[in-house]
Amino acid sequence: MGDTLKKIRLIRKTSKTFLGISALLMLVSTVALYFYLRNLLQSEVEEELRSTEARIESSLIENPEPFQLSPVVEIQKVSRLGNEVLKDTIIYDPSQDEMEEFRELSTFSAINGENYRITVRALVVESENILIAVVISYLVIILLVFLFLFYVNRSRNQKLWTPFFHNLEQMKRFSLSSDAPIALMDSGILEFSELNSEIKILTNKVRSDYRNLKQYTEDVSHEMQTPLAIIQAKIENVINMEEPLDDQQFEQLTSIQRDIQRLSQMTKRLTLLTKIENNQFANIEQLETQIQGVVISSIIEREQVVNIRLVFPGTNTNSVSDIQQMTLQLPSGDIVPLQKVAKIEIGKGVAEINRENQKSIGVVTARLNNRDLGSTLTDIRNNLSTKISLPPGYHIEYGGEYQQQQQAFKELMLILIAAVLLVFTVILFLFRKIKIALAIIFIAILGVAGCLLSLLLTGTPLNVGSYTGIIMIVGIIGENAIFTYQQYQECDVSLSHPQKIEYSIAQRLRPKLMTATAAIMALIPLALGIGAGAQLHQPLAIAVIGGLVFALPLLLVVLPIILKLLKE
């Protein structure tokens, strides 16, 4: 078949299913929440407009003079009454010094003999910002809950399926020639318990059938040996008779003799096979006793258990010839030298067998000297991929500090994403403008480039410390950008937009320089590796210094440009 099925681990399969269903539910619930809140806010705005319109009518009864509160309320006298109009419109808002979208309600009323058109407006942008902030907050909360449940579910699945994988490994090791029962782990789950019960019944049945088949083979072998020997002897007698045989008779008898010899050899092989499977050869414990002696007790020496062996006199087995001359007692009672039943040669032994998850492994460890972990692993991967070809069933895994580093990177990446989302939510709640929130987050993320550039220039690896510095820079730049825009909003209304930007930047310039300079001066000793333990925090210091230096042009140049573009 051209197509092959891709093998997927069971836990990974269930995790992917959980991820897919959860992501779909999260997306559907977010969209549904958005439209529900949108309709709810629209209803609230319309009710507020009608309530405001009713209060205005009451005030006109007492004071019939029309008035105007631009752009929220407009009252005009008209010649005739018209129909009520509810619509969205865009008008100039002096308080914000820009065009804004409003929800507008226009009604006509006859009060004290005069016709009035009453127009009431509500700012739509505030409602939209509140809606977006609520939806994003909901999305962040659901995402955090989803990640928590994912890790809990993954941990639970690993514990739940541990007995299954243990039993699977036991099935792989199952041997028909062994009398030891298969050791299955009980998980306390009904389905797994039933599976274990069926496996035990099946293995016992297979082992019983196998032994019966071996016994039958052995019996047939023994039963055939005697008739074949008799036939062989009679054929030899016929061939050796005094009366000569013609060529045809001699050839036929010779052919029959060859066939009988082949049958005899086959029965001998069957007998040998059954002896091997039934452990009818000499027990290996005889050799262990002659070479190593017998363990009769043990003592504790230097916190280690040491065996006490009883060694027989004259058991000097330092050479291959000595081992070859050892004698074995066969089940039949015969005593033979070891060299007649075994081939003895010197080979390389295994000092230690390491296992992980019940699988044999070979462990290679090393220590780093004046090199970082990332570049070292890159060189190791390249050399292994070009110089080593692994046979089927073998694979290479990288553990130790590298495995811990990769796990820490994943966790820090989640923390970084969560921090960005939380900062975005705070900005959205504070200013209620999604464009400003996106602009500040964009500038904060650009600050990461300064961290990476400083790490690249200094040849510092990307590790847990530098990752922590990147997360700090995102928060620092976001905080400074928030203060700058807050200063911009608090400017005098009479100032133009460019003047507001210049004023806010000028007001925040000194605090930014003081903060950045103080932080950089404090981190320089760590960045240079001065002092005991400074090398541990050196990547963090380099990342923070690079981010702070890169943050100054972002806050003093890029942020004003973005504010100007958003205004235009």
UniProtKB/TrEMBL annotation:
Residue ranges constituting the Signal transduction histidine kinase dimerisation/phosphoacceptor domain according to the UniProt record: 212-279
EC nos: 2.7.13.3
Entry protein name: histidine kinase
Any GO molecular function: phosphorelay sensor kinase activity
A single cellular component GO annotation: plasma membrane
Ribosomal protein keyword on record: no
Pfam families: ACR_tran, HisKA
Catalyses which reaction(s): ATP + protein L-histidine = ADP + protein N-phospho-L-histidine
Organism lineage string: Bacteria, Pseudomonadati, Bacteroidota, Flavobacteriia, Flavobacteriales
